[in-house]
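Recall the central idea of this unit: under ordinary conditions, the amino acid sequence of a chain determines the structure it adopts. In this exercise we apply that idea directly, starting from the sequence alone.
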Amino acid sequence: MNKPKILVARAIFAEITARLEQYFEVESNPLDEIWTKAQLIEKLQGKRGVFTTGGERIDADVLAACPQLEICANMAVGYNNFDVQAMTFRGVQATNAPDVLTETTADFGFALLMATARRVTESEHFLRAGRWTKWSYDMFAGSDIHGSTLGILGMGRIGQGIAKRGAHGFGMTVIYHNRSRLSTELEAQCKASYVSKEKLLKTADHVMLVVPYSAESHHTIGAAELALMKPTATLVNIARGGIVDDLALAVALKEKRIAAAGLDVFEGEPRVHPDLLTVPNVVLTPHIASATLPTRMAMANLAADNLIAVLTGKAPLTPLNTVSKRAVAQ
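Accordingly, the structure predicted from this sequence is:
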């Protein structure tokens, strides 16, 4: 019996490829090439499954051109690269990789917050440039984390992890805004209070963005929202590019209308808005919030688990949609 054919769209751990090869005929991408839509469609011909990493766009055009496709398994919790509605219409299963990266990403969110508030990157550049010649009372004086007010926009699992780190580890007052309010029990665990978005922006010393990307959340933080923040406040984005209007943020940073920002995600990444590269009061990292070896391996294994389950007739572990048995895709 022939094995089902699948595509692994980016370079992944060799152990994961070997595991998939036990079940499938695998076409991989060891050179980690970035394919155009036309190239992706060509590679997907005859494939029943695809392992994606968050950057490969699976939309109505791709689905129409690849009628044998049954499952798209994302090695990421975010899935704005998937047109889930189109996938459901075509009878294609969509899956992602939640939960396994929650604590690691929350760790990094807090690391980026601390680096931003305490001006770590800015001061390191100063030192490396040989400009440190003496001590001065206000040299790279930043803002405190302990005892300050942390405002979290988006209070899913990662947001809750950040809240617990802030409240329990650093004695921060935690406020949050979310589409739906947490239960009383979860609020107590996080020591977090629900407030309006406007109050959060006006009150917080540090604003952390952990909202999923959608058309509705595009530019959740723009010029108007930045104008509400304290001039001493910091902004950290570990959510998705497009949540923040990067140009408006660069202007606010340049004009010192907020103190600093920490960004792990960007509009149009891997391109970074050039204006962000010209301001010193921003910490920039290349979308690495989940980047520890154990976590990335767990994410890849979960994507593999979903592929194996669906293409062997079982239910996916982390489905994003409910599909009928290839009702439309014939």
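The longest strand covers residues 149-153.
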